[in-house]
Design goal:
The protein contains nine helices and no strands. By secondary structure, the protein is an all-alpha fold. Keywords: DNA-binding, Transcription, Transcription regulation.
Length: 202
């Protein structure tokens, strides 16, 4: 059963408050450390409102995954319009800008969840789908490069996007743990170099 959607502006505000509170708590304390009572206290919502929109905690986690994906993609708008090698460089700079801010480098919220629910048969596929959505925008941009003759005809945009994502996630993890953005800078440099190695020869 899917979570209930809000049908009124007031209902949307309440639902959003619940999801935002859960997302903030789960980012710090994880899914296991975030109780429904904590979410209710942080959101100001009542228990009846919570269970009107989310029948169980798994539905709430699913909504949090969607919210994390929105946040992650919102920090890298260039990924939606990739059409050149310069656009790919802009994309990597946008990723770096997020982690150059005060308090950075920060953990990837999807990466946090993946580490906790990676073996959960119901939640792991939802995190994977979020990653696949993220990758799909990169893959679409690479397909555009291939169609423009700037990427080798035999290159596989999906595999290249997956490889780039692997590098990005590793860089995000080490940069956060070490409080050192150079790990992410190097990972993105490696990703770009790997993608460029598949450029069409002139």
């Amino acid at each position: 059963m899917e979570a209930q959607a809000a049908t009124t502006p007031r209902g949307k505000r309440t639902r959003d408050a619940i999801v935002d509170a859960a997302a903030a708590l789960m980012y710090v304390d994880g899914v296991a450390g975030t109780s429904v009572d904590k979410v209710l206290a942080a959101s100001g919502a009542g228990k009846s409102q919570m269970y009107h929109y989310f029948k169980n905690k798994e539905q709430l986690v699913a909504a949090v995954i969607d919210r994390y994906l929105e946040q992650v993609l919102g920090n890298q708008p260039a990924i939606f319009t990739l059409a050149s090698w310069a656009d790919l460089e802009t994309w990597t700079e946008q990723l770096l800008d997020v982690h150059r801010r005060a308090g950075g480098p920060i953990a990837c919220p999807l990466g946090n969840l993946a580490g906790e629910v990676g073996d959960n048969p119901k939640l792991a596929p939802l995190v994977d789908q979020a990653y696949r959505t993220w990758e799909s925008h990169l893959a679409r941009g690479l397909a555009t490069l291939r169609d423009k003759g700037e990427l080798a005809p035999g290159a596989d945009p999906d595999r290249l996007a997956q490889a780039a994502m692997t590098s990005v996630q590793g860089g995000l993890l080490l940069a956060h743990i070490r409080h050192d953005i150079t790990a992410l800078e190097d990972a993105l440099g490696i990703a770009l170099a790997y993608l460029r190695s598949h450029a069409r020869e002139r």
